[in-house]
Automatic annotation (TrEMBL):
NCBIfam families: PRK05862.1. It catalyses: a 4-saturated-(3S)-3-hydroxyacyl-CoA = a (3E)-enoyl-CoA + H2O; a (3S)-3-hydroxyacyl-CoA = a (2E)-enoyl-CoA + H2O. PROSITE patterns: ENOYL_COA_HYDRATASE. Belongs to the enoyl-CoA hydratase/isomerase family. Keywords: Fatty acid metabolism, Lipid metabolism, Lyase. One of its GO terms (molecular function) is enoyl-CoA hydratase activity. GO terms for biological process: fatty acid beta-oxidation. This is enoyl-CoA hydratase. Pfam families: ECH_1 (PF00378). It is an enzyme of class 4 (lyase). Could possibly oxidize fatty acids using specific components.
Length: 258
């Protein structure tokens, strides 16, 4: 399907979705969010795809919700259409591994979208922030919650209350991003990570993702129990048999996603 606000490509078993609304620094208007939801669903449902990379431009991953589009919205409109959440959660519902490759601004909804991904690889020019307070709003797509869980209360309060931006180094230091790379190497690094993941068994990678995400939903004892159940279930897969046999036979495994 052709999109107006996205560029979508497939490289081996990796789907790359690039936000492309340069005139507004990839701000999320309705069309972009509808298209992104569609593209993420399509990648998740495609049996040829094992990992997804979500990225923007060198200047902006995304500058947040489209302020011009939402400025005149009434409370009743926002409430009845469940503004933002209804159409923004697809990234967090995606079951295949999803990497955010972030260069430039990841602000407001852009930072929230990056946090919905499984991990963030940041270019050295990346800037993260939740500046909603500066325009008389608060984060509306999970920013206060995910940021508090991922980087702790002190940093989350600082970021959401002051509206300041955080550079890549601070973001890595506090655990918001997994790695920083020079801007020119961002996509190569993200693709290398995505292809590595896509080279493993798809169902097993999905189980890893589901289990790590569980840590953010339930108490430790429940999370550990959940992990153990999933661990037991890997023994029902052919890929576990193949992976362990290959180790014993000192060869590369040939996973079948089965
Ligand atoms: N919505 C709509 N348009 C936006 C936008 C946004 N969030 N961010 C940037 N743009 C537009 C600008 O209006 C400008 O368009 P025009 O040339 O037509 O005026 C164009 O993109 C380029 O932007 P700037 O000229 O401002 O570029 P800059 O380099 O000087 O500044 C910036 C970059 C610091 C990111 C600045 O654009 C900015 O502060 N943007 C808004 C960031 C923001 O507040 N985001 C939060 C939105 S609310 C939200 O996301 C709610 C939520 O939780 C989901």
């Amino acid at each position: 399907m052709a999109y107006n606000t996205l560029e979508v490509q497939t490289d081996e078993r990796v789907r790359v979705i690039r936000l492309s609304r340069p005139e507004a620094l990839n701000a999320f208007n309705r069309e972009l969010m509808d298209e992104l939801t569609d593209a993420l669903k399509a990648a998740d449902e495609d049996n040829q795809i094992s990992a997804i990379v979500l990225t923007g431009s060198e200047k902006a991953f995304a500058a947040g919700a489209d302020i011009k589009e939402m400025a005149d919205k009434s409370f009743v409109e926002a409430y009845t259409e469940d503004f933002i959440t209804a159409n923004w959660e697809q990234a967090s519902r995606t079951r295949k591994p999803l990497i955010a490759a972030v260069a430039g601004y990841a602000l407001g909804g852009g930072c929230e979208l990056a946090m919905m991904c499984d991990f963030i690889i940041a270019a050295d020019n990346a800037k993260f922030g939740q500046p909603e307070i500066t325009i008389g709003a608060i984060p509306g797509a999970g920013g206060t919650q995910r940021m508090a869980k991922f980087i702790g209360k002190a940093k989350a309060m600082d970021m959401c209350l002051t509206g300041r931006m955080m550079g890549a180094e601070e973001a890595e230091r506090c655990g918001l991003v997994a790695r920083i790379v020079p801007k020119a190497e961002l996509m190569d690094t993200a693709m290398e990570a995505a292809k590595k993941i896509a080279g493993y068994s798809r169902p097993i990678a999905m189980m890893v993702k589901e289990s790590v995400n569980r840590a953010f939903e339930v108490p430790l004892s429940e999370g550990v129990r959940f992990e153990r159940r999933v661990f037991h279930s890997v023994f029902a897969t052919q890929d576990q048999k193949e992976g362990m046999k290959a180790f014993v036979e000192k060869r590369q495994p040939n996973f079948k996603d089965a």
